[in-house]
Amino acid sequence: MSSSETTPPSHADEAWKEALALYFQPFMEFFYPHIASQVNWAVPYQILDKEFHKHQRDDVIGKQFVDVLIKVQLKDGQDCHILIHCEVQGSRDPQFPRRLFRYYARIDGRHDLPILTLAILADGQPNWRPTHYESTVCGRPVVNFQFATSKLLDYQGQEAALLANPNPFGLITATQLAAIASRSDPSARLQRKTGLTKKLLQKGLDKKAVIALFRFIDGVLTLPEAFENTYNDCVKDLEKEYKMAFLTTPEKVGLRKGLEQGIQQGIQQGIQEGIQQGMQQGMQQGMQQGMQQGQHDKALEIARQMFRVGISVESIKTCTGLDDDDLSTLISVH
């Protein structure tokens, strides 16, 4: 196998989104312990994803980042919103501070609650460390927006401690660092991915946690097909050793191909269902509505299946023709 094979795009955005939804309290305790100590974790927090995507839909096209809006109660009884932004694209974005300020302003305009903005910088640029957004007019400052950041590159050289940490974000951080270090070297990435998978199984976690973290490793450390086949062979051996089944990448590839090949057939079936519904109504308008609804429902079902197996949101949008509203709803319920 040649190390010159191109590494496919990662699914880091989906991986981080799932991790934040599953492990919000461990996330806060790992990256922002001082803030976490002020949250009343006895009161359930609320993930306001659907609400948040109304605010930032115009800014998400073609971007690689994750935003989650969460409502928590502090120990002093005050409610507040925490906006978590994870930047996973590999290059610095000069518009990043302004983008965060725009999200803050939109949320502030709709909710009478304080907002704390936190940013995770998962890029590979060591000197890119934005902390604020400023704007001046006629020499007078009009905006000075501050946000807290955590740079994953600062954890380089601490991999052993990260993997020994019982907090799931120790392994998650080590995985993202491995992705940065092996971006252009599939052979090194295969070695790191295999090693991280073994470490995960050695932690003695319950099956649900193991599968969730396995999905993160698999989504972030993508490999060319030949290397992935080798990794899959290793996973099969680990499954036997630890008596725990995973959904391996080649199996996901097969599912994806099957889904993509079945899209047209599924849409046609949806049209037929719509026609039948329209005919039963006995009116042309009902017929048209039925066709559209049947097609839309089938596209939604296909999109759900594609999302479950890790296909990117952009690919789902292209294949199904669903709009941003439908996709935002789909993401929020998963």
Number of domains: 2
Anisotropy-based shape: globular
Q: What is the H/E order?
A: HHHEHEEHEEEEHHHHHHHHH
Structural class: alpha/beta
Ends: how far apart? Answer: 36 Å
Q: Care to count the β-strands? A: 7
How much is the radius of gyration in Å?
A: 22 Å
Strand proportion: 5-15%
Main sheet makeup: 5 strands, mixed
What does this structure look like?
The strands form two sheets. This protein has a five-stranded mixed sheet, with helices on both faces. Strands 5-6 form a two-stranded antiparallel sheet. The chain is globular and about 60 Å long. The protein folds into two domains: 1-241, no CATH class; 249-332, no CATH class. It has helices at 12-22, 24-31, 33-36, 49-56, 96-110, 159-164, 168-181, 186-202, 207-220, 225-242, 249-281, 284-308, 313-320, 324-332, and strands spanning 46-47, 65-73, 79-87, 115-121, 132-137, 140-146, 148-151. Helix 1 (12-22) packs antiparallel against helix 9 (207-220), helix 7 packs antiparallel against helix 8 and helix 8 (186-202) runs parallel beside helix 10 (225-242). It has 334 residues and is of the alpha/beta class. A hairpin with a 5-residue loop joins strand 2 (65-73) and strand 3 (79-87). It is built from 14 helices and seven strands. The mean pLDDT is 80.
